[in-house]
Amino acid sequence: MAGGTASLYARGRETQRGATRDPAWTRRLLIGLGLTFFALFLLAPLALVFTEALRKGWSAYFSALAEPDALSAVRLTLLAAAIAVPVNLVFGIAASWLIAKHRFRGRTLLTTLIDLPFSVSPVIAGLVYVLVFSAQGWLGPWLLDNGYKVIFAVPGIVLATVFVTFPFIARELIPLMESQGTEEEEAAVVLGASGWTTFLKVTLPNVKWGLLYGVILCNARAMGEFGAVSVVSGHIRGLTNTMPLHVEILYNEYQFSAAFAVASLLALLALVTLALKTFVEWRVASARSEGA
Amino acid sequence: MAEAALNRFGSVPAPSSRSWLLWGGAALVGAVIYAASRGGTLPGGLLLAVYALFALLGIALANARSRVLPGFRLSLAVTILMLFLIILIPLSAVFINTAKLSWSQIWEAISAPRAVASYKLSFTASLLAAAVNVVFGLILAWIITRYRFPGRKLVDALIDLPFALPTAVAGIALTALYAPNGWFGSFLEGQLGIKVAFSQLGVLVALTFIGLPFVVRTVQPVLEDLDTEYEEAAASLGASRAQTVWKVVLPALYPALLTGFAMAFARALGEYGSVIFIAGNIPLVSEITPLIIITKLEQYDYAGATAIAAVMLIVSFALLLAINALQVWSSRRTERS
After folding, report:
1. How far is the C-alpha of B271 from the C-alpha of A206, rounded, in Å?
2. Closest to A52 (Cα-Cα) out of A69, A37, A64, A42
3. Can you tell me the distance from the alpha carbon of A50 to that of A55, in angstroms, rounded to the nearest whole number?
4. At what angle do helices A68-101 and B72-82 cross, to 10 degrees?
5. Alpha-carbon distance B88 to B313, whole Å?
6. Mean pLDDT score of chain B, rounded to an integer?
7. Do A20 and B293 make contact, defined as CB atoms within 8 angstroms?
8. B62 part of contact set with chain A, CB < 8 Å
9. How many Å from the N-terminal Cα to the C-terminal Cα in chain B?
10. B42 near B35, Cβ under 8 Å?
């Protein structure tokens, strides 16, 4: 009797499954297609970077990285990221506090404007600073007379990096802060907490993983930006070359192993970024299931 | 009170009697800047941009009422100042400098044969790449959310590789793969006679690479949220699996697919780093529009570069508006269902 109902139940689920699950051949076909595309378009380029970098052995690999021009490129890349990420952090926190916690006219317009740099070609991001700061630009002549060089110098590289990374942290924080509402903050303020205390003790702990996520993505883009930086850099070796620009120069000089050696550092950075991102997503998911 | 309720339920703020002030003010400032810049006074254009900044700041501050949460004015000031100084004023330079050119100068720059050939290539290759991404992005999103197979989590994590990998690295890696002596190139070119690297096909490959995450990441959350109840209901009403997929599942995914397509397309139009290595950059054949801008800059033809940049910016802004509209439409659809 019990066995009868069980098998009836099983048959019922079987028909239901037939309509909600794909037949085995479809499943195999789709997994095969997806994984082939994944391997050809994503895995192969990644594997190639490391294979080419190590083609001439480890000693050639390390000597390519220890070269003075490569080292100065690493330093400049770190410097640009070290300025761009904190600037972005300040903007991201201010913008998300404004947009997620307040209602005012022009709010949607402001949100669209913040996303603007995402839809601007990196080449144009570099071009706009050339128009403002070059010798023929708006401020360039005055700045040059006073001894400040922006284009074909480090400040231009930092500015271009700030432009392309501009929306990253705000983009992560706004939806997160919005979903959390304002009740907790209002309670803190009503109980007498100051604005900063409310932010540091109530808001920040709630959004810390999202903030970290934004910082990771912003940093990856800051270190890897090529187009915008290429326009304003002037490609002066040892002075205005970031790592991606150094990769380009080496590649164009047919020093393929050295180019891929420097590229492999950037690829490692990308892998670390993805690993951290996966970790943060996992933390957010587990925090959400704990909360629920 | 009514306004607060509206804002809570829809992200679009209710049109109010005073909103025309904001739009009218913005239009007026724009017209004045345009007139002043045509007059040829450069610092005048800049001063007006700064004036625009303070005008907007004033309008926004006038908007402030007493609020429970502190920090409205401070965060508004920081946001608007940084937005204007870093993004909007420099961007306006493209339009102000273009406005200073005569119509014949603008037309000459944007209708040059090399420029027109680059629009065709950039547009077609971006469109095709986005279409390829829709097909394979949907397949990848589908197998990641619906099936269990070894390595699924790794695939899920690595989908974002094109976002994280610097474009120059992607560019040289793809070029080395598809070059005549590369892993893929030696087969494609040697055996099949298909030339990928240093041709238009190379541009398509690079743009497909950088656009892939957009479709997967817009479709994936919708697929995860899509309750299998609807599929069960369709099945119990006698639909076959194929009918269920075509008539129930796919229609629910259309807005996300379209948004992902538009995002991949917009990104591909402006992409530079991953393309220039593999394209070979043959004039009239495989030059993309961003490269034309760079070439003009290197020849100190700032006017020509700026005019083409203005064309690109107008197209990107139109796409941005389209994407925003799509997202509003798709969130409404999800809310209704």
Report:
1. 35
2. A64
3. 9
4. 140
5. 12
6. 83
7. no
8. no
9. 28
10. no
Instruction: Give the residue carrying structure tokens 């892939």.
Output: B212
**Are the Cβ atoms of A131 and B209 closer than 8 angstroms?**
no
- To test the contact with chain A by mutation, choose from B73, B75, B209, B288 the residue with the greatest count of A C-beta atoms within 10 A, namely B75
Cα–Cα distances in Å, from B138 out to A26, B169, B263?
Answer: 14, 26, 15
- Tokens of residue A212, six digits: 């970290």
Evaluate whether A127 touches B93 at the Cβ level (below 8 Å). no
Measured on CA atoms in the order B141, B131, B201, A269, is the torsion positive or negative? negative
Which chain A residues are Cβ-neighbours of B291 within 8 angstroms? 123
Beta-carbon separation of B158 and A274 below 8 A: yes
**C-beta atoms of B165 and A43 within 8 A:** no
Contacts of B174 in chain A (CB under 8 A): 45
Question: At B239, phi and psi to the nearest 5?
Answer: -75, 145
Residue A291 has pLDDT above 90, yes or no: no
Output the CA–CA distances (angstroms, integers) from residue A113 to A225, B55, B91, in the order listed: 21, 16, 12
| Closest Cβ opposite residue A224 in set B68, B82, B166 | B166
Subunit contact A274:B161, Cβ cutoff 8 A: yes
Please answer yes or no on whether B60 and A223 come within 8 Å at the CB atom: no
Q: Could you give the CA distance from residue B176 to residue B166 in angstroms, rounded to a whole number?
A: 16
**Mean pLDDT, residues A170-174:** 91
Calculate what percentage of chain B has a pLDDT beyond 70: 79
Stretch B216-237: mean pLDDT: 86
Distance CA B255, CA B263 (A): 12
Specify the pLDDT at position A19. 57
- Token pair 């099949």 is found at B192
Smallest Cα distance from A7 to chain B, Å: 19
